[in-house]
Amino acid sequence: MPLTGLPAADGVLSMRPALVVKVDNHPGARPQSGLNQADIVFEENVEALTRFALVFHSQGSDPVGPIRSGRTQDIDLLTSLNGVLFVWSGGNAGVTAAVKSSNFINMSASAAGKGSGFFRSDDKKAPHNLYTNTSDIWAVAAGRGGTPPPQFLYSADPSSVNGDDVVGVKLRMDGSMKASWEWDANKRVFARRHDDKLHLDSNGEQVSTENVLVLTVEYKISAANKKSPEAQTTGTGVAWVLQQGKFTQGTWTRASEMDPWTLTDATGEPILLTPGRTFVELIRKEQAVIVASGESLAATAWP
Predict the structure, then answer these.
(1) Spatial distance between the Cα atoms of 69 and 23, rounded to a whole number of angstroms
(2) What is the DSSP code (8-state) at residue 253?
(3) Number of folded domains that form the chain
(4) What does the alpha-carbon distance between residue 234 and residue 147 come to, in Å, rounded to a whole number?
(5) For residue 275, how many other CB atoms are within 10 A of its CB?
(6) b/e string for 209-231 if b means 16 or more Cβ within 10 A?
């Protein structure tokens, strides 16, 4: 599958469009649905919080949410997925215009139409309770969108990963949103905590992933809202790649919003990811710290 590097079990599924859902990370939105089913998750700074962009392709999530609004930074971030089905609660006039002029298929709560499956849950309060089902979105959007190309390169032999042994990484993003990833050698994944508590999904399972990418990006002010930061996801910057209990520092490069991400190590060689799910942290400079092998995640100070 293009977004996981895993073999395609179903040729029809491999050709369908990617489906992106903007998911809330406000305390009132947790636990979320879909974080462990998305092929790729981007975490981005918004206004004194973070928000997730869940990219589904190889599998879906029924339900998924809570769904929130988009930002102008989503356009450059997601354009290379080739016509995503963009599921969001809506946005201000500037963001809405940007989405309409992009290659996205607008699947907002108001635009998706009959059969799109949007509903409000009873266990959370608005605006943190809007959900849908990815199966409904794919069904009503049949024939629209394009097949996504790979966004990263994957290894045919992940057991040969190079790098330094690592416990994990700690992040302090905007609004003092604190999260960490810790290597679980038994499950062969990195497991996520929010603050110092397990970050659980709506199924009671800890959020986890095979690959954690910590990408340092510049944030500018969005033209649509002076309060909104806008991640600059083209150009180049520092990349920390965590996989298989290893850490590699390198560089990310992306020539344009139409291009996939290139990850290279200090010698300029490509960094290949472990086939599976990938969680991408779009941080400002100095918003993360590596916890090296032999150190304690709990004892390591937040950045």
Answers:
(1) 8
(2) E
(3) 2
(4) 21
(5) 17
(6) bbbbbbbbbebeebebbeebbbb
Residues spanned by the domain of 171: 158-292
Q: Are strands 246-254 and 40-45 parallel, antiparallel or unpaired?
A: unpaired
Q: Are residues 177 and 286 in the same domain?
A: yes
As a whole-number percent, the residues of the chain with pLDDT over 70 amount to 100
pLDDT digits (tens, 9 = 90+) for 170-227: 999 999 899 999 999 999 999 999 999 999 999 999 999 999 999 999 999 999 999 9
Strands 208-209 and 19-24: unpaired
- Residue 122 CA to residue 139 CA, distance in Å, equals 25
The answer to whether residues 131 and 210 belong to one domain is no
For the record, the structure tokens of 59 come out as 């599998």
pTM to 2 decimal places: 0.97
Q: What CATH number corresponds to the domain at position 182?
A: 3.50.90.10
Instruction: Tell which residue, 261, 265, 259, 218, has the closest CA to residue 240.
Output: 265
